[in-house]
Design goal:
heterotrimer; A alpha/beta (274); B alpha/beta (419); C alpha/beta (394); A: 274 residues; two-stranded antiparallel ribbon; 6 helices; 19% helix; C: 394 residues; alpha/beta; Peroxisomal Thiolase, Chain A, domain 1; 9-stranded mixed β-sheet; globular
Chain lengths: 274, 419, 394
């Protein structure tokens, strides 16, 4: 990928104007941090990800007359969140593997959206396979190196128990196969991979070899994960820019964050008039 | 027989909720022995260790031989009503609001005569069974019951003042997910509770007995996560004004003590649920309950905490959990003091190992959820403050009373089984 | 307690004089100090004495707190060499007499002023009841907080069951006392009481109804104890003490109170006075409820145990009757002025035997029996005592 624009300042200026005019739209891909938002459920003898919790410190009252503020607690992997390489055992020795060490430029990149929503609608255990990727590339071209790749399933529209979709044999939700992850990581050199589900892996991802292939391959190669994304249906298959900047937590393995995308607004030539 | 109470009418929104007044709670230190016994539903009096004289009223020296060694002992409850009166005017606002009020003099077979509250079914001059109850001020008082059970005797208005009978009351049970919740809801339905709210955390996760729970008549499942302040506050805003009995049933427990765990993650969860969960519930539901202690037949009556008996003495195999239980236990003492002005009983039900996943490797005896639920309802009907369910809990508290330091050493030899 | 080794000394040479009653008030904004001061002043004025002449002081009061007799000496400007504070409620009058008489007899004091008084502020009765005694606080007040009404209701209920007494029997005592009270200008109750009124009154604590209960009032009573020669020198009418008895916590084995300590010592009472019940011209019992007056009639030998109902049916208890009883109207009709209720009968008896009772005067009243009963510590009155006094030396 190479920037053709002769003048970076002019490029940013154009972008700023486009943002103001609405020619470039900002799409929020984030769920609200809510105490009742599902988190991944592991067997209870394992440690569990803390749910988002918020306690009022004061609210213009005897605890602080003119101000309102809260303390909140949560896990690094609560809500819409970022997975750093050090999150997974395969990434334990990756350089710059924790959120505080990742260079800031790594958080921003072009994004490819693979629409699996029809498949996920038909099959809650829908798999993203190399074949699905090949079909996407046939239509949209090869996935550029350094891209964020998002798997759109419309899972973010599910509510309550249907989201985790937990049954006696575990959760059922779509995700990538090991082969697909190898393809994306090793052959396409993606920057990171994101999903609408509670993890980058399928609900039944523990039963692949290796288990949790998205985590295993992404983080083993120093790439990133995004999960619990929202509004993926508002992104084009290609041509958008994704910004995902986790909190700078020392030795952090991830963090809740606000994920946004810059999207060209094709259908709105005259937004200023509205 | 007692006239059965009728289901209370819907509240008149134009009338001020009656403010709880209390009978006199002033007592000498010696008399608090009666309160301590009443907390467990025992009828105990001082018995002189030197001459064997049964003493009443409680005192500091034997009225026969002047010995000051007057241990409290269980006393045969039989007696006869030798005089009675019906108080129709009283200097106490509490009694003035509740007259006519029957009191009597009972000659105990054990010796002394006592002045006591008298159940409506006791015949003039009749045989009675003395029961030691906590009154609305939380002090032990003696209550003469008919020697034989009579029909609807729990509905006697004076007796109902001493109890937290679930009949026609609205109950909130927290943590629908726990196995106890199902048994508790069944027991409260059987005890004629009018509504059984069951708080359900993380509705996005299924659990096995949900359908069975929801099918119990009177059960309403509502979102409640005791680790989430806003969730607790929201539910209290909805049903806090009609929660007459609250059963704090949520519990987080993992095996292990300090060194093997190596972190504070589970310990934090244990504190979040077992200790702070209780505090959140109390802060959200307590004020409304405190204000509704005298709100008619279905007044706010009791707050129940299901606690581990290891609150009293740490079981190192469950060391961190035991510590959170101890913290919760201490908080219940504070809650009891704070709820007392509202006449709301705070009852702690202590169990040893319960029959659930976390005690699965342990040998019996274990407390089955049904046994626990039965003890909760029975304790409410008797108006108790402390209930020890099952052999392990009873044995532990006996040994704790005999010598907490000895018990501490014994506990470190005890296999928690869950480790 | 039998087999007392030495005979008791007589009260020769000691007399009672200057009876004083401060007219009672239903409610008073004043304090016990105020009431006691007025009674003391009235008694001393009657005797022509000043506070400086008083070298002995005996006080009974429930509402002096935080003061005691000690604080009163400074408050009232007294400098006694003998001081007493008697917490015996309805038994405090006879108790004061007994103690003061021995002090004067022994020369420890020359003139002892005995005073009882209490105020009745609007809420003071309730406050007094809730902290009356430790046993009451622990073992009776929490049971309906009926106070003495409920305790005496239990005793009355038991007595009625045991001896077949009816409410009408108790009514006879109350009706007769109201009749007496109508002659006493200071009595709080000023309207006649008929048996119909009595029986038709509302229940307070069954079987105790309105007219079985005393009305708490503010008031004070006083008298002086001094040497006979001093009284004579001052020209004071005086009464002689012929005998006394006192007993506390008698018959603790009785499951409920059916008798008082008088029953233990009544023989000694008459023997010391060299008298018998027939010699008594009038009886002043402690009458906070009629059942206890009836028990006193029995225990003081006027009839046998359980014969009280028949006795009151057979006798006229009014001033002009054959058995004058509580001639000032007693507490039932004159009001109960706290600890002064333990003095009312004694002060009236001093007036009676010295011919100073005025409108309530019993004709030819020479010898009176006064009995005291005090302190429902738990389920029964603990203190009981009695004295026989005469208007002339024996």
């Amino acid at each position: 990928m190479s920037v053709q624009a002769s003048n970076p300042a002019a490029l940013l200026g154009d972008l700023a104007l486009a943002l103001v005019s609405g020619a470039v739209e900002v799409v929020d891909l984030t769920h609200t941090l809510d105490p009742d938002f599902p988190v991944i459920v592991l067997p209870p003898e394992f440690g569990q990800c803390a749910r988002f919790r918020m306690e009022e410190i004061s609210a213009y009252d005897h605890r602080g007359p003119a101000w309102k503020w809260h303390n909140f607690t949560c896990g690094e992997h609560t809500g819409t969140h970022f997975d750093a390489p050090s999150h997974w055992v395969s990434g334990r020795d990756v350089p710059n593997g924790s959120v505080d060490e990742i260079p800031a430029e790594r958080f921003i990149g072009p994004v490819c959206v693979i629409d699996c929503s029809q498949g996920a609608k038909a099959n809650e255990d829908f798999e993203l396979t190399p074949e699905v990727i090949a079909a996407w590339e046939a239509e949209n071209g090869r996935i550029p190196e350094g891209s964020w790749v998002l798997m759109r399933t419309d899972w973010s529209k599910r509510r309550g128990a249907a989201y985790l979709n937990m049954r006696d044999d575990g959760a059922h939700s779509p995700g990538p196969t090991p082969e697909a992850m190898r393809l994306l990581v090793d052959e396409r050199g993606i920057r990171g991979f994101g999903t609408e589900t509670v993890g980058t892996d399928a609900g039944q991802g523990a039963h692949y070899t290796p288990p949790y292939p998205a985590h295993f391959f992404l983080h083993g190669a120093g790439r990133y994960g995004l999960q619990c994304l929202n509004n993926l249906d508002r992104l084009p298959a290609t041509g958008a820019m994704l910004i995902a900047t986790p909190l700078k937590i020392r030795n952090g393995t991830g963090s809740p964050l606000r994920v946004i995308a810059l999207v060209p607004n094709q259908g709105l030539p005259n937004k200023d008039a509205q | 027989m007692t006239t059965p109470i009728a289901p209370p009418p819907k509240k008149d929104p134009q009338q001020r909720t009656r403010v709880q007044t209390l009978p006199s709670g002033a007592r000498s230190r010696a008399a608090l022995g009666l309160t301590a016994a009443a907390a467990e539903g025992r009828f105990m009096l001082q018995v002189c260790a030197k001459c064997g004289t049964v003493q009443y009223p409680p005192r500091d020296a034997c009225g026969t031989c002047l010995s000051v060694d007057l241990p409290w002992k269980d006393i045969a409850p039989e007696g006869r009503l030798i005089a009675e009166t019906t108080v129709r005017t009283s200097t106490s606002t509490y009694f003035r609001e509740r007259t006519p009020w029957r009191v009597g003099t009972v000659r105990l077979e054990a010796g002394p005569s006592i002045i006591c509250h008298v159940h409506g079914d006791v015949a003039r001059g009749g045989a009675v069974r003395i029961s030691n109850r906590l009154d609305k001020s939380g002090q032990g008082v003696l209550f003469a019951l008919p020697a034989e059970r009579t029909q609807n005797m729990e509905d006697d208005p004076q007796l109902r003042e001493m109890t937290a009978n679930p009949k026609f009351r609205r109950v909130l049970i927290t943590d629908a997910r726990s196995g106890n919740a199902l048994a508790l809801a069944q027991a409260f339905a059987k005890a004629e509770a009018s509504i059984i709210f069951v708080g359900e955390a993380e509705g996005w996760r299924p659990y096995p007995h949900r359908d069975e729970l929801a099918a119990i008549p009177g059960v309403q499942l509502l979102p409640l996560d005791v680790t989430d302040t806003s969730s607790v506050a929201e539910l209290a805003a909805e049903i806090g004004g009609k929660t007459d009995i609250l059963v704090n049933n949520a519990r987080f427990m993992r095996p292990g003590g300090i060194l093997a765990r190596g972190d504070t993650v589970f310990a934090r969860d244990e504190m979040e649920v077992n200790y702070l969960g209780l505090m959140r519930l109390a802060q959200a539901f307590g004020p409304a309950m405190l204000g509704r202690g005298a709100d008619g037949q279905n007044s706010a009556a009791a707050w129940v905490n299901i606690l581990s008996v290891y609150a009293y003495s740490n079981l190192p195999a469950l060391g961190a959990f035991s510590a959170s239980s101890a913290a919760a236990y201490s908080l219940t003492q504070c809650l009891r003091a704070e709820m007392r002005p509202g006449g709301v009983r705070v009852m702690n039900v202590y169990a040893g190992p319960t029959d659930d996943d976390w005690h699965q490797p342990l040998p019996p005896p274990k407390v089955a959820p049904q046994a626990l639920a039965k003890a909760v309802v029975a304790g409410l009907k008797d108006g108790l403050e402390d209930v020890f369910v099952g052999d392990v809990a009873q044995d532990l508290i006996d040994r704790w009373r005999a010598g907490p330091k000895i018990l501490e050493r014994e506990m470190s030899e005890t296999d928690g089984g869950a480790a | 307690m039998a087999g007392r080794s030495i005979a008791r000394k007589s009260y020769d040479g000691v007399v009672l004089a200057a009876p004083a009653t401060v007219p009672y008030q239903r409610f008073s904004k004043e304090t016990a100090h105020w009431w006691i001061a007025r009674a003391l002043r009235q008694s001393l004025q009657a005797a022509g004495l000043s506070p400086r002449d008083v070298d002995g002081f005996s006080v009974a009061s429930f509402s002096l707190f935080p003061d005691t007799a000690v604080g009163l000496t400074q408050h009232l400007g007294l400098t006694p060499r003998w001081l007493d504070h008697i917490p015996m409620g309805g038994a405090s009058g006879v108790a004061a007499l007994r103690r003061a008489a021995r002090a004067v007899q022994a020369g420890d004091a020359d003139i002892v002023a005995c005073v009882a008084g209490d105020t009745n502020q609007v809420d003071s009765f309730r406050r007094m009841l809730s902290s009356f005694s430790r046993f009451a606080q622990d073992a009776s007040y929490p049971y309906g907080a009926g106070g003495p009404n409920a305790c005496f209701a239990l005793l009355t209920d038991h007595y009625m069951t045991a001896y077949g007494a009816t409410r009408e029997d108790f009514g006879r005592i109350c009706v007769a006392q109201r009749d007496n009270a109508l002659k006493n200008p200071h009595a709080v109750m000023k309207t006649p009481l008929t048996m119909e009124h009595y029986l038709g009154a509302r229940m307070i604590s069954d079987p105790i109804a309105l007219f079985d209960c005393v009305m708490p009032v503010g008031g004070a009573e006083a008298f002086l104890v001094m040497r006979e020669e001093d009284a004579r020198a001052a020209g004071l009418p005086c009464a002689y003490i012929r005998s006394t008895i006192e007993r506390h916590n008698a018959f603790p084995e009785d499951p409920i109170q059916m008798r008082g300590g008088w029953a233990m010592d009544v023989d000694e009472l008459y023997a010391m006075a060299d008298a018998k019940p027939d010699d008594i011209n009038l009886l002043q019992t402690y009458d906070d409820y009629p059942v206890i007056s009836m028990m006193q009639m029995e225990d003081l030998g006027f009839c046998g145990k359980g014969e009280g109902p028949a006795f009151v049916r057979a006798h006229d208890l009014t001033i002009a009757g054959d058995f004058p009883h509580n001639t000032s109207g007693g507490q039932l009709s004159a009001g109960q002025a706290g600890a002064a209720g333990g003095y009312i009968g004694l002060v009236e008896a001093i007036r009676q035997v010295t011919g100073g009772a005025g409108p309530t005067q019993v004709k030819n009243a020479r010898t009176a029996l006064v009995s005291g009963f005090g302190v429902i510590n738990f389920d029964r009155g603990v203190c009981s005592n009695a004295a026989i006094i005469s208007g002339a030396a024996a």
